[in-house]
Amino acid sequence: MARRWWTLPLFLVSALAPSFSLAGPAFENTAIVRTIELGGSLVHVSTTYAVKALEPGQTTYQIALSKVERAKTSWLEAKVKGQTTPLKLSEDESSAEYLLSISLPKALAVNGTLNLVLETMQTHVTHPFPEQAAQNEPQLLKYETDLFTISPYTTLVQRTKIKSIAPNVISYTTPHDVDSFVRDGSVTRSGGTITYGPYHDIQTDTDFVAKHQQSVSVHYSFDYPVIEVETLRRTAEISHWGSNLNIEDKAHLHNAGPTLKGHFSRLEYQSQNFQRKQAPHILSDFTLHLPPGVTNAYFYDQNGNVSTSHLRTAPSIAKGSKAVQYSVLQLRPRYPVLGGWNYSYTIGFDTPLQDSVSYDAKNGVYMVGVPVLTPIPGTVVNDAEVKIILPEGATNVEFVSPFPEISNSMSTHISYLDTVGRPAVTFTYKDLTYKHTGIIYVSYQVPLSAHLKKALSVSAAFFSLFAFTFMARRVNLNLHKK
Amino acid sequence: MPAAYPLPSDLSPVTVANTASLLRIIALALISGAAIASRLFAVINFESIIHEFDPWFNYRATKVLASQGFYEFWNWFDPTACGVIYNLLHALNLPVDIRNICVLLAPGFSALTAWATYMFTKEMKDESAGLLAAAFIGIVPGYISRSVAGSYDNEAIAIFLLMFTFFAWIKALKQGSAFWGTIAAVFYFYMVAAWGGYAFITNMIPLHALVLMLMGRFTGRLYVAYSSWYAIGTLSSMQVPFVGFQPVRTSEHMAALGVFGLLQIVAFGQLVRAHVSSKQFQELLLAAVISLGLIGFFGIVGLTYKGWIAPWTGRFYSLWDTGYAKKYIPIIASVSEHQPTAWPSFFMDLHFLIFLFPAGVVMCFRTLRDEHIFVIIYAVVASYFAGVMVRLMLTLTPVVCVSAAVALSSLMDTYLDPTEPSVEDDKSETSTTHSTGTASASRPATPATSKKTKKNKEKEKEAAASAGGVLSELVSNVTSSAAAAKSATTTERGVFGMDTRLVVLLNSLGLLLFFVVHCTWVTSNAYSSPSVVLSSTSSDGGKNLIDDFREAYHWLRQNTAEDAVVMSWWDYGYQIAGMADRPTLVDNNTWNNTHIATVGKAMSSPEDIAYPILRKHDVSYVLIIFGGLIGYSGDDINKFLWMVRIAQGVWPDEIQEPNYFNRGEYRVDSEASPAMRDSLMYKMSYYRFAELFGGQQPMDRVRGQHVPIQGPTLDYLEEAYTSENWIVRIYEVKKDDVLGRDLKIANAFNQGKKRKRTKPMSRRKAIGA
């Protein structure tokens, strides 16, 4: 018997968490409910664990995810149900399964219970099926997941709900060989919701995964385009002289839904619009929520300004306070983006510097906060690069990212009227979603001399020009006077 | 000496000179500012975008230059200014986008043109005329039409180079300076590299030299200036790959070579004459000169016949015979800017300058120095050319500005000059009055003389008052000037009093103001719309942009294979290359008539004839412009007859223009001729157009005709993309059928199968039975 998923953790846990190795399991899951909200490029999963402590003084609860699932999960967060502060998570990826250790807010007494909620965001988990669709055909996607929610602890009852927004579910897998866990039925469907379970008495048995774990898939129709931003390059440039923070995003958008079968017909598109029955896989416009107080917003691509965008600005708000209103930028690409089509564009806007930079006069330190991304609803950003360009002559640069980045680097950026160039910090990220809207904080110092450098160099240039003409007018190069 | 109004008298000459110089600099700076600003309408109303069709090629070439360096680029051949500016700005840490440099290059050069015109006119008359000429050329619509922001066209640079070359030539001629001759040659070289119209300079300068020689004005200065310009200019122009050995092999360049030879002979004759005094020998020499000249001329003619020298090209013939192009080279005639100029466009482009222009030429005759002869020749030649081709209005504009400025400035000089003719004063004093009157630049006199002037003026005032009222003054003025023409002894010529002055000056000021208003209006309304973006005004006064071109080009760029060849009419070749980044079959630089005729044939033939042509040329997409839905009149159906004509020129057996008419009418409705209805262009334009009207009678808004409800069908092409307002329609050329059938049969088979499924059984049986 291959005791895959239980032996290895044990093996490791013996080194990490003594409470595990000494006695039997410290917890028991009285119930696990996993809710999967199907989407296009994003699938939101929230799993509720009803935990009962079997031993006193336990402060670390472990959650297991399969390696495949972890690779597709770009964001996760654990909370005590009903509370808003996320719990501390530590990850252990060296085992066969992925183990997350959650530090509980307080130790549980024996038989003490707690409801934990793990929320994850999965990306690139759906695929169009069939892979091609004509312009007037629906968009069908397929989602696959494991039937059982695994856990290092015994689970008394668990169920998995898969919810589709549209009630139109084409098909779903009926699990096999689950009679030993089932009392009523292995799967039920009501409307767009498919419920697997309840399954009873899931043991932490060593051969459980190998023997019973199986993959189930749901084939459903999805009414919104499946959009991926393949690359996103964000540049934030801070100007103290202009009192301005410019943010510019260069994005390459791809419609990852079923690729267009045949060709695009404008006639059909227009008649679909006329009848208000637009095909689900066509992206004709999208909306971005920009920070309040933006000015000079622009939207262009390789061929110049895209004249079909609208911006409604909200007034600027005091720093630190919660924004009530956002500036809304409605973008319409030059052409409707059908399945398999690409569209690359650049948007940018200016915000007042005082909205995002604070100055600590005591230490002479500036602190700037730059959001990682402006999310397009329901899309995933495959590769993101955020470059923050600090003012020329900035020193003592320190930075912190709201979530771990893949890499960061310092470089020099040369722009208008620079002499030595501006320091720039670059972060790279992968698979960002609307949950990744944190703020990167960068602190730096700018000496007065650096502030004045630009003005001095410009005036020196002009002075030398005038001095040159002043001299040139008075020098006579003629060999002999006429 | 009497004066009409007082002048400050306590100024030192240095102060006056410095102030005048400062004022000139400020005026020139303001003129440059106005020249640039008036060209920015397009950027403000639309955006910083490159207009038209040609400039896109230059834009791409510049991008190559900026990214790959000069030598890589030399194979491309094109203006280099942008690349140089781009690299310079980047070296100065000014990372300006190359598109913005290209867009703003033309306005920038127009400021330089204003300066070059100032320098040129200064040589003709004086600084004040120069400033006027600079102001004129800065805002005159005739030049703005070619140099608004975004028209990144060669002409924008060319006019500056033209004016500066002429200025350097005049300067070289005046001073007999090899230095200025070399400068003229260098700018000539740049002009050769920048614009095909350099032949204008190649012929203007020799013509001027020849006329000077014929007028007996041969001097050593002319010899030095011309020889240095010709030798260096020709050698350097031969370095341009596009020109090569043309300067010694084509007729366009022969005049310059001939005049160069003649100049050598004449100079030699002068040299001999200086050393020999016999009258007979001189006559002999004259005969020798003439015979040598004739031998040279006939030699050139003979060589042309032999084929050593290429005869004039067709483009040149079309300059002499306006009907030539239409008959023999329809491709030239098909370009709208190659049409003869309509009269109103002279006024539209030049406004009141066109009236002042002859006056300025006459002024040139009055002081007929060598440089004035140049302006006269230029005026005559350019007027003729401007009448032949709309496009050559551009070369007329500078000379109109110069002569109009000379005329207006003479008028202003006369009426601004405060000196009044002294009725009682004796002869000697009036002659000095005249000399100061003509040279207005030296008007600020030294304190001693101006004091005298003041005294005299007071005396004069009393005299004028005693003489009588305004009317008598006017009368005396008129009579005196009339009389003066006959005999200078009776009365003085001149202007009396302030009122006469004011009448004339306010009048000219009014004209100048109207000129400014007109220029602004024409620029903003006629010349500042990028043809890539169309704008319309909605019923509530809002502005709607029609951006179909960029929409379709962007689609091509992002969603087709990178090496997919696009076939379109040549007008859009550069745009497709620039904005869609796809190779095209023909573009704006295609002068091979057969290539264009091939596209014309494909467009005007039925599908099954066009298909092999498309396959042979490896065409993946066919792009057409269709304005029938929103009424965009510059579409391909309206250009279609030119395609037919050009194709007919090469395949007269297969394509005949009359076949596309129905009883002499060009129709697209149900009365359209069979050839028209079967042509690929017609089918692509109206494919599924009728369905848009949902059973209603479909209407083509450009032609104002009802097209048939049953639209055309396509077998060999598939609709790939149609832009929002249906202006751009892109079709994909189908690959060969997998079963090796003819595509038409395959298509019919497919449709047949479909019909089987959809139609009721009983009816099918009935048909079968």
TrEMBL record, chain A:
Where are its TM segments located?
455-472
**What InterPro entries would the database entry show?**
Ribophorin_I (IPR007676)
The residues the entry assigns to the signal sequence are 1-23
Question: Keywords of this protein's UniProt record, alphabetized?
Answer: Endoplasmic reticulum, Membrane, Signal, Transmembrane, Transmembrane helix
The metabolic or biological pathway listed in the UniProt record of this protein is:
Protein modification; protein glycosylation
| Ranges in a coiled coil | none
Q: What does this protein do?
A: Subunit of the oligosaccharyl transferase (OST) complex that catalyzes the initial transfer of a defined glycan (Glc(3)Man(9)GlcNAc(2) in eukaryotes) from the lipid carrier dolichol-pyrophosphate to an asparagine residue within an Asn-X-Ser/Thr consensus motif in nascent polypeptide chains, the first step in protein N-glycosylation. N-glycosylation occurs cotranslationally and the complex associates with the Sec61 complex at the channel-forming translocon complex that mediates protein translocation across the endoplasmic reticulum (ER). All subunits are required for a maximal enzyme activity.
Annotated family = Belongs to the OST1 family.
Q: What is the protein named? A: Dolichyl-diphosphooligosaccharide--protein glycosyltransferase subunit 1
Species in which this protein is naturally found:
Suillus discolor
UniProtKB/TrEMBL annotation, chain B:
Annotated Oligosaccharyl transferase STT3 N-terminal domain ranges read: 23-404
Instruction: Please state the protein's primary subcellular location.
Output: endoplasmic reticulum
Provide the membrane topology annotation: Multi-pass membrane protein
Q: Which InterPro entries match?
A: Oligo_trans_STT3 (IPR003674), STT3-PglB_core (IPR048999), STT3_N (IPR048307)
Q: Which ranges does the record mark as transmembrane?
A: 20-42, 101-121, 127-144, 156-172, 178-201, 222-242, 254-272, 284-305, 346-365, 372-390
Protein's cellular compartments = Endoplasmic reticulum membrane
- GO cellular component terms, semicolon-separated: oligosaccharyltransferase complex
Part of which pathway? Protein modification; protein glycosylation
Q: Which GO terms describe its molecular function?
A: dolichyl-diphosphooligosaccharide-protein glycotransferase activity; metal ion binding
Q: What is its EC number?
A: 2.4.99.18
The broad enzyme category this protein falls into is transferase
- Annotated region (Disordered) at 419-465
Q: Where are the compositionally biased (Low complexity) regions?
A: 430-450
The keyword Transferase belongs to this UniProt entry's keyword annotation: yes
Q: Which UniProt keywords apply?
A: Endoplasmic reticulum, Glycoprotein, Glycosyltransferase, Magnesium, Manganese, Membrane, Metal-binding, Transferase, Transmembrane, Transmembrane helix
Cofactors that this protein relies on: Mn(2+); Mg(2+)
Output the GO biological process annotations, alphabetical, semicolon-separated: post-translational protein modification; protein N-linked glycosylation via asparagine
Residue ranges annotated for the STT3/PglB/AglB core domain, each copy included: 563-612
Q: Which reaction does it catalyse?
A: a di-trans,poly-cis-dolichyl diphosphooligosaccharide + L-asparaginyl-[protein] = N(4)-(oligosaccharide-(1->4)-N-acetyl-beta-D-glucosaminyl-(1->4)-N-acetyl-beta-D-glucosaminyl)-L-asparaginyl-[protein] + a di-trans,poly-cis-dolichyl diphosphate + H(+)
User: PANTHER family this protein is in?
Assistant: DOLICHYL-DIPHOSPHOOLIGOSACCHARIDE--PROTEIN GLYCOSYLTRANSFERASE SUBUNIT, DOLICHYL-DIPHOSPHOOLIGOSACCHARIDE--PROTEIN GLYCOSYLTRANSFERASE SUBUNIT STT3B
UniProt record similarity statement:
Belongs to the STT3 family.
According to its UniProt entry, the function of this protein is described as:
Catalytic subunit of the oligosaccharyl transferase (OST) complex that catalyzes the initial transfer of a defined glycan (Glc(3)Man(9)GlcNAc(2) in eukaryotes) from the lipid carrier dolichol-pyrophosphate to an asparagine residue within an Asn-X-Ser/Thr consensus motif in nascent polypeptide chains, the first step in protein N-glycosylation. N-glycosylation occurs cotranslationally and the complex associates with the Sec61 complex at the channel-forming translocon complex that mediates protein translocation across the endoplasmic reticulum (ER).
Q: What is this protein called?
A: Dolichyl-diphosphooligosaccharide--protein glycosyltransferase subunit STT3
Q: Which organism is it from?
A: Suillus discolor
